[in-house]
Amino acid sequence: MSLSELLDRLRELSKTAVVVVEGKRDKEALKKLGIENVITIAGKRLTDLADILEGTPQVIPLFDLDEHGERIHKKVVAILSSQGYILIDEFREKLKEYGVVYVEDLYEKVRGAKKPAGSGQAD
Predict the structure, then answer these.
(1) Is 120 a domain residue?
(2) Range of the domain at 45
(3) Domain count, the chain
(4) Which residues cross the membrane (predicted)?
(5) CA of 59: how far to CAs of 36, 84, 95, 108, 113, in Å?
């Protein structure tokens, strides 16, 4: 699956599922890519997530692929799965395959991949 196809799938799923990210810049990057229903955990207690997501059966946890993001991911998955949420958890590992570490960099990575030949700085 190409990065473009992966993002198409995320876009489609985000119409009915909530995408949970770490911070504001992550949310902004995903919005620029046409991904809907994005919420951040910044400033929120993880134990309050179930209340925040009430009425949302499907959740896509999409945290950074660094050590900090991995810890948050594990905690959020444990909390939400114990509350009966359906977790769509396929995107982080696939993004890692494309060299994406920080969700906020995803828009620039995609934009960079779409630059026409010859674009960039002059010699």
Answers:
(1) no
(2) 3-111
(3) 1
(4) none
(5) 12, 11, 17, 24, 28
